[in-house]
Amino acid sequence: MRVAISLVLLAILVAVGVFAYEGLTLPGAAMPGQGYAAMAIGIMFSVIIGVGLMALLFYSSRRGYDEPPKLKSREDRQR
């Protein structure tokens, strides 16, 4: 089963690589400067969101927010 899944994922990776190569080598009009600017803004936004979410993940892990809940006994509630 693992081998079949690995082969399917490898086939998808190869197909994406071929598609990307074909798309980059097609002759035609070059992308305008606005396209490059939009792509750069999208990449920067994606990186900022990714870094922010990873920072929140590490923060919550360090502060103990990811720990399972613990029931307090009656003695703990009276303190």
Write out key terms for the chains shown:
3 helices; 76% helix; elongated; single chain; 79 residues; mainly alpha
Quick structural overview:
This protein is mostly helical and 79 residues long. The protein has helices spanning 2-25, 33-63, 74-78.
Shape: elongated
N-to-C order of helices and strands: HHH
Give a short account of the largest sheet.
Answer: none
Number of domains: 1
| Overall average residue pLDDT | 88
Radius of gyration based on Cα positions: 24 Å
Q: Please count the helical segments.
A: 3
- In total, the number of strands is 0
**Low-pLDDT windows of residues:** none
Structural class by helix and strand composition: mainly alpha
Instruction: Tell me the strand percentage band.
Output: under 5%
Would you kindly provide a written description of the structure presented here, covering whatever features stand out?
This protein is mainly alpha-helical and 79 residues long. The protein has one domain (2-66). 76% of the residues lie in helices and 0% in strands. The protein contains 3 helices and no strands. It is elongated. The mean pLDDT is 88.
SSE arrangement:
Blueprint: H1 2-25, H2 33-63, H3 74-78
